[in-house]
Amino acid sequence: MDWDETAIRRWLEPLATRRGEIAEVFAERLAELTLDWRDGAIREARVRAEEGVGARRRSDGAEHFVFVPGTAEADAREAVRALRAAAAAPPLPIRAPRAAPANADDAFPDAERWARRLTAVLARHAPRHSLTFRIRNAERRVVADGGRSAVSARRLLSLEGRFVAASKAGDEERVFAFHAPATDAASEELRTALARAAEPRERPVPVPSGETDVVLAGGSAAVFFHEALGHPLEADAGPSPLKNLPNARVAATALDVADDPRRLDLFGGYEFDDEGTAPRGARLVTSGLLGGPLSDRAHGASSGSSGHGRRAAASEPPSPRGSNIVVAEGGADADEMLRRLNNGLWIEDLSGGSVEIASGTFRLRFPRARRVRRGRFADELGGGVLAGEILPALGGIEPVFGREARPCRTFGWCARGGQVVPVGGAAPEVIVRRLSVRADA
Amino acid sequence: MTDARLTRELERRSPGQWELYRKTADSRETAAAPELRRDAWRREEGWAARWWIGGAPRFAAASSGERLAASFDDAERVSVEPSAPPEWPARQTPALEAEPVAPPPELFEELSRAVAASSRGEASLSSLSLRSGVARERIVNAAGLDVSQDRRVLDGVASAVGRRGARAREARLPFRWTGEPETDALARRLADAATLPLSDRPTPFPSGQWLLDPAVGAAVLAAIAPLFSAERPPRWVLRGQLASPDLSVADDASADCFFDGEGVPVRRTLLVEEGVLVGRLHDLASAHRAGARSTGHGARPSFRLPPRVGPARLFFETKTPATPAALLSAVTRGLFASALIAPPRVDLAADRYELEFTGVSVVGGKAGGPVAGARSAGRLSDLLKRVRGISTDTQFFPSPYPVGSPTLLVERASFE
Question: Closest Cα of chain A to B350: distance in Å?
Fold first, then answer.
C-alpha cells in the first residue's frame, strides 16, 4: 500500500468540513491459507488473496460508501472520486493510474512447518478427523479526516471441525475449535487443547430440562458476557433491557467486565480499529455497575470513539462491535467453586451463543457438561442449550470468581447482521444462578 | 494480468487440468433506518483458479489477476492427497456487453406503512437494506470452455421491532425478489415474527396438525438439502419412501442462469418424485466419482471457494396442490408456524430435527390466539412422511441459493 497520504487527505478535505462529519479511506490486504485435513492427510489446499478500498463520507444522518477492488493509490483515488461526486464536491481530475506492483510477498513462509506439526499432533491425539486449518494475514490502513491515519497487521490461526475420540462407551464424534493469534506459543497451546479434547470420557447422559445453576469454566464465561453485555452495549444496538441504565447496579460489586481490543494475545485484539482509532478498554461492568458503550466515530458522542469501529471486510462500512471480553479474576480455586455451586452444571466449553437484544433473551449452546451434586463432580452429560434473560442472569452471578482468567480459544468469530469479525475473551470460572437448560435435539 | 496470461501460466503448471473463473459485480445498495440513510456503491472483482499438480488439487482465489498469479506458488507449498481431476466440459458462448445498474427502488416508507398495518400498530420497521446488482461470470478451462453470463439480483434485509408494554422483540428477515417487490408478504412475515413472540402464550396443545408458512417450509428444505448431494446418504433415506406421496422436490435454476459454477448448463433435476428419492445432484467431481454426468450443480456461492456440489434453486412441488385456505380449513386442532425463532437444528445422520417457531393456534379451521414460542422435535423421516397438504403459494427465500416452499400441512406433530 504505497500511498501518498498527504494527497489522500487533500482529496478528503472537502468531504469533512464541519464538526461531526467523517471522511475516510480504508484499505485491506488479506492473505489466507486453508488446509482441509481428513484422517491424517491434507485433502485440499486453498489460498485467498484479496485487497480492496472502502471510502466513506458521513454527514447529517446520511452516509455514502464506495468499494473498489485493489489497494493501489489509484484505487483509493477512484473510491474518493465517487464519494466526491455523490457529495457534489468538485471532482478530482482524472489522472493516469500508476501501475501497482504485483504482490510477490511470501505470505505463508511457515505453511510447510504448520502442515508437518499438525500432521504429527493429529496422528497422536485425533487420527480420525475432518478438520480445517486456516492462517489469515490481514494488513489494514486508514487515512481519515483530521489527520487520522493508522497502519496495522494481524495474523490469526484457527483449527476447527470434528474428530473421533475413544471413550469408555466406544468411539465418539466430538467437535473441536481453536482460535488464536498465530504465534509460536499457539502451536503448543493448540496441541494441549487437542490432547485435552481427546481425553476419554464416560458415556454421557442427556441433560435434564429445567432450571439450573452453572459454573462457566475454561474461559467460556467470556461467551456469556459477549452475548449478554457486549452486543447490547454496542452503540448502534436497538432497544434493549440495558438501554438507559448507565451506572445502574446490574450485578454483584465483585464483577468487573471489560471489552479490551488491546489484549493482542486474544483472537479479537488489534492496535487500531478500522477507523484508525487507538482503542481503549471499554468497561462494560465495573464493580457491578453498568458501563459502556462500545462506540465507533459515528456513535461516540461527546466521549468519542472507544476504538470499536470494526469492519468485516473493506467492502463494508464500519460499525461498533465488540472485540475481547475480559473478566477480572477472583480468589477462588476450583474446589471452592464446586462447593459454591453445590448442585448444577460445570461447563467448560460453549460452542455458540446468540442474543435477541430487544427482548433481552440469550442462548448458549454447550457440547457437554459435568453434573455437580453436593459440591462434587457426578455424571457426564451430553450437549444442551442454556437460556435466560440478561438482567436476571447478571443478577444471578455469584460474587465469587475463579482465580485465573483463562483465554477462551473456542471463541473466534462473531456474526451480526451477516458481518463476521474475529472476537475473543478471557474469563475465570463464574457461577450463574437460575438459567434454564434443555438437552440438544 | 489478462485472462490469456493466466491461462498460459495455468497450462504451464498443469497441462490440460485447469479452470479459471472470473466474476465482476456492480451493485448499489440503500440502507434506511429512522436515524440514518446509507447509499453504497460497490465494484467487486474476483478471480479463482483450480489446477492439479501431481494428481493433487490446488485452488487459489484473489481480487485481481495479478494477485491470483502471485498466489499459485503458495497454493502449491504443501503436499495434498491426490484426487482425480474431473472431465472438463467444453463449449463456448458469446461475450456479453456491460450494462449499468440502476439503484434499488425506494421502499422504506411503503414497507413501514405495510408493517404497521399488518401488525395493527404493534410493530415498526427499524431498518431496510435493499441491493440491486449485476454479476458477470466467465469461466474458461483447459478443454476449451469459454462461457459468460450475467446474473441480476434484487435482495435485502429488513428488520422490525414489535412492542407491547415494556416488552419488545426484533425480527430480521433476509429476502430476495425475482420480479416486482413483494412488500405485503414481507410486511406480514415481519409483523408476525416481531409481534407473535410478545404474547407470552405457550402452545395450548402437546400435539396436533402443523401448518408451516412457506418461510418455515423453505427452512426445512434448506436444512435437508445436503441429502440430495450426499455420496452416501444416511440409511433412513434409502429405506423406501422418503416422504409423503404428495410431496416432490426438484431443483431448477434455468430461470436464473444458463450454467453452473463449472460452466455446465443448468437444467431441471427431479430429486424426490411422489415421496420417492429418484435423483441426485452432481457437479463435475461427484459425477466423475459416480460414473455419471454433471447435473449442472457445481455451486459457487463465492469466488473465494472452489465449486462444490449443491442446489441452485431448490423447491417443493406437488401434483395435487390445494389453496392455503383449504389447508387452513383442514386443520381441526394444531398450530400454524409463522416464523422460526431459532435456526433449524437438523441431524441428518441421526434422522432428527428440532424447530422452534412462533405462530398461532388453529381450531376448527380458524386461527385462534398467538403462540409466543413452541418447539417441535422428532424424526425427520416422520416429518417428511406426514406432509398431507401442499399449497399453491410457493415463495422463494435466500439460503443463500433460492429455496422455495408453499404452505405445508403436517399431520401428527408434537409440540412443547
Answer: 10
Which domains can be identified in chain A, with CATH numbers?
A: 5-197 (3.30.2290.10), 210-439 (no CATH)
Same domain, B204 and B108: no
Residues in chain B: 416
- Are residue B167 and residue B231 in the same domain, yes or no? no
Distance from CA of A198 to the nearest CA of B (A): 22
Q: Which residues of A touch B157 (CB under 8 A)?
A: 417-418
Taking an 8 Å cut-off on Cβ atoms, the answer to whether B69 and A52 are in contact is: no
Q: What is the pLDDT of residue B63?
A: 96
Write down which residue in B198, B231, B262 finishes a domain: B198
| pLDDT per residue as tens digits for the range B93-130 | 887 777 778 889 999 999 999 999 999 999 999 999 99
Q: Do A238 and B347 touch (CB under 8 A)?
A: no
User: CB pairs below 8 Å between A and B: how many?
Assistant: 153
Are B64 and A51 an interchain contact pair (Cβ–Cβ within 8 Å)?
A: yes
Average pLDDT score over residue span A114-120: 93
Question: What is the pLDDT at residue B390?
Answer: 97
How far is residue A34 from each of residues A131, A390, B61, B115, measured CA to CA in Å?
10, 37, 11, 44
Q: What is the mean pLDDT of chain A?
A: 93
How far separated are the first and last CA of chain A, in Å rounded? 50
Kindly report, residue by residue over B231-276, the tens digit of the pLDDT: 999 999 987 889 999 999 999 999 889 999 999 999 999 999 999 9
Residues B341 and B385 in one domain: yes
Q: Which residues, other chains included, contact A267 with Cβ-Cβ below 8 Å and sequence gap of 6+?
A: A156, A179, A180, A181, A324, A409, A411, A412, A422, A423, A424
Mean pLDDT to the nearest integer, A173-181: 95
Domain final residue pick, B148, B166, B198: B198
- A52 and B352: CB-CB below 8 Å? no
Do B360 and B349 lie in a common domain? yes
The whole-model pTM stands at 0.94
ipTM over 0.90: yes
Provide the number of structural domains found in chain B. 2
pLDDT digits (tens, 9 = 90+) for A291-300: 989 999 999 8
Give residue B140's domain range. Answer: 3-198
Cβ distance B59 to A440 less than 8 Å, yes or no, reads no
E strands, A39-148, are: 41-59, 62-69, 129-144
Asked if B51 and B13 touch (Cβ cutoff 8 Å), the reply is yes
Set of chain A residues whose Cβ sits within 8 Å of the Cβ of B78: 35, 42, 45, 111-112, 115
